[in-house]
Amino acid sequence: MNEFVQSLRLWFAPQRIRAEGETPDYRFSLANERTFLAWIRTALALIGGGFAVDQFLPELSWGVRTGLALALLAAGVLCALRAVNHWVRCERAMRRGEDLPVSRFPTLLSVAVAVVALAMVVVVLFGWEGR
Amino acid sequence: MTAEERDPGLQPERTRLAWRRTTLSCTVVAVLAVKQALHGGATSAAVIALSLSALAWLGFLLVAHRRVQRMGSARPRPLEAAGAITAAACTVALAVFAAAMLF
Could you give the ipTM of this predicted complex? Predict the structure, then answer.
């Protein structure tokens, strides 16, 4: 938790990153940036999925539709916030010459996406008529 | 373009294309947001939701555009934290407006 507060502080005081360690090869920073963008795209895809559930499954009952849409939107928000956090931590680790941070977030996200997908299958197969 | 030696792995170009892809994804989400907002007719709430979503999209576009321009140099400087935070904030904003429009 302490580490999270530390990286949160880094978000809003970016000059602290610059103050530490040495500037890595610019190509490493660019690779980190592309990873960040890939996560942002994942977040955008989840948010788009949230919109799509609400717009393209009008036969579902309101509760199920809203629940699924909210789950996808929440996952998108988490993913975007985590993208910044991971980017900051990687940038700092590279400057300090430390190992890159490991994370269980990808696993959690895959499990969450799998659960939502299963819920969709169940809902579409059995709950289609429910209004 | 400078006369400096360019990276044979084309890292700046790849990063520029990554920004372009991400802008495209953001545009798709913004279009879905417009569709959602206008679903129930052009009420005042819909117009507000529409303008806020458009603002988030424009914010993202601005960050992406500035970053894409930077990628023209042979050795671009690393991404500023402000740019990363703005891009993520626009993404989160789109999700929050989407959630608000569900009700």
Answer: 0.86
Q: Report how far residue A59's alpha carbon sits from residue A55's, in angstroms, rounded to the nearest whole number.
A: 10
H or E stretch covering A75: helix A62-96
Domains contained in chain B, number:
1
Inter-CA distances, A128 with A31, A58, A70, A120, A122, Å: 44, 10, 19, 10, 9
Determine the Cα–Cα distance for residues B61 and B94; give it in Å rounded to an integer: 13
Residue range of the domain that includes B65: 11-101
Amino acid (1-letter code) at residue A123: V
**Hey, which residues 42-101 in chain A have their CB within 8 Å of chain B?**
43-45, 47-48, 50-52, 54-55, 66, 69-70, 73-74, 76-77, 80-81, 83-84, 87-88, 91
**Residues A91, A29 contacting (CB under 8 angstroms):** yes
Task: Spell out the residues 6+ positions from residue A31 whose beta carbon is closer than 8 angstroms to its own.
Answer: B11
Rg (CA), chain A: 19
Residue B72's CB is within 10 A of a number of other CB atoms, namely 12
Contact B62, B103 (CB under 8 A): no
CB contact under 8 A, A40 and B87: yes
Indicate yes or no: pTM above 0.80.
yes
Averaged pLDDT score across all residues of chain B: 85
Could you report the per-residue pLDDT of A98-117, keeping only the tens digit for each? Answer: 888 888 899 999 998 898 88
Which are the contacts of B84, defined by CB distance < 8 A and separation ≥ 6?
A36, A83, A84, A87, A88
